[in-house]
Each structure stands twice: as C-alpha cells, then as structure tokens.
C-alpha cells in the first residue's frame, strides 16, 4: 500500500512531468473510482493545467489554473502514476488518463481499483471534514505531545490514527517505535516527555530516510526493523540475521496491536 513516502514520490514525479500543460481530455475507464461526477470533472479540467501540488499524509492535492478546481488523488492499495507519450501504448491498469495538449499523458494506474480521484474546493476544509490531522513531517513535538496526552490507547494505535500524524502507516509506526525504543502496546498518554521526543524525532528520521531511498525497502539501513518483515524482498546473505534485533540479537516478535500485525523487539522495546 502506498504510504507517505511513496505518495511524496508521486508528488515529485507529477511536478517533474505534468505541470503547465493544458488538459484536452480526461478519460475514465471505471467511474466508480471517482468521487466527483465524471461529466462535472471533465468539464472542470478541460483547458485547465496543473500548476502545483500539496501532499497531506497519503492524500495528494493538485492545483490547477482554475482556482476553484483542485484535484485530490488517493492511491489506495496499489495506485501509481505513469507519464507517457501518446505514441506509446496505454499503461496496463491505467483506469484514468489525463491527456495534455503537448501529446503526453498522465495515467493514474489502479490495479486493484481502491484508488480515488475527485475535486475539492478547499483543502483545509476537506481535511477538517475527513478528520485528517497535520502531516506527519510537519508535526511539531509540542503538537505530538498534545495529541497523545489524553489518548488511553496503545501508542501504535494512536500513531495510526490519521488525526494524530497524517501519513503514518503500519510499517512506519513499527519502525519509528523500534527506533525510539518504545513498546507498541505502551499507552500513549503514559509516554514521558523524553519518550514523546524520541517518537517525534523518529517520525522525521524514518520518513525522511524512506523518501530519500524512494521507498525502496531493500535500500534502507540494515539497522532498520523493516528488513524483518515477511514482504521485504531485499537480498540478505543471512536472512536469519534480519529476523533479530540489530542492537541485542533478540528474535523479533510479531503480535497484533489494534488488529494490525506488529513487529517489535521484546528487549529494547520494553
């Protein structure tokens, strides 16, 4: 599932390829993926051009030359973008395609059809209505402390609540708690000031590293917990080594926290 780092990559990709080109057509293969009526959407986009982007958590907002027309993209479980020339074949699973006057196209690729596109008129209003908090990378330590102060749920569950830190997903929560040396089941409201600082610091470090590595998990530092996850396909010479804590050699444990599969070290995350 595309998490904050992947969506940041999509944002940069769209800005590098698709800005300032008038849209001459918007083709939709499956209207169920739209949150706006297709006729309204096509009319709003026709003749407009993308001018910039804003990402909040896993949501990508695209500004256009029409101030009241802002596109929202959500990449669901398998969504991505692909920029290509009209002379080339349409990408597989390209459920929606923006065609530009330049002869190039931007495809919204949706293999499993959990992705969504639609219009919003006010980003902040949309975020408020959907109860999406501040983007995790923009969150201050004080804001994090305030958000956790009265939450009597496990810290992992609190971090997955998009009202607390928008964009933090399952593996990210495990990783930042591992780096902060905090057990995922510790009650959020009981964290000390030093522990809140450790979590806040880890949020920035883990997300920035993931963005830097373009979310290629195999390229993450070997000290990262992510290499113990079952879906990590990085070529480890000794896979058993990566099923153990890189600090103390303890075998990484797997449990359920708030119904989500959770990886942690039972020794350094007390």
UniProtKB/TrEMBL annotation:
Keyword terms: DNA damage, DNA repair, DNA-binding, Glycosidase, Hydrolase, Lyase, Metal-binding, Multifunctional enzyme, Zinc, Zinc-finger
All residue ranges annotated as the Formamidopyrimidine-DNA glycosylase catalytic domain in the record: 2-115
Domain FPG-type, first and last residues per copy: 225-270
Endpoints of the signal sequence: none
CDD domains: BaFpgNei_N_4 (cd08976)
UniProt keyword Acetylation, yes or no: no
GO BP annotations, alphabetical order: base-excision repair
InterPro entries assigned: FPG_cat (IPR012319), FPG_N (IPR035937), H2TH_FPG (IPR015886), Ribosomal_uS13-like_H2TH (IPR010979), Znf_DNA_glyclase/AP_lyase (IPR000214)
Reactions listed under catalytic activity: Hydrolysis of DNA containing ring-opened 7-methylguanine residues, releasing 2,6-diamino-4-hydroxy-5-(N-methyl)formamidopyrimidine
SUPFAM superfamilies in UniProt: Glucocorticoid receptor-like (DNA-binding domain) (SSF57716), N-terminal domain of MutM-like DNA repair proteins (SSF81624), S13-like H2TH domain (SSF46946)
Gene Ontology molecular functions: damaged DNA binding; DNA-(apurinic or apyrimidinic site) endonuclease activity; lyase activity; oxidized purine nucleobase lesion DNA N-glycosylase activity; zinc ion binding
Protein family membership: Belongs to the FPG family.
Name the UniProt record assigns to this protein: DNA-formamidopyrimidine glycosylase
Organism: Arundinibacter roseus
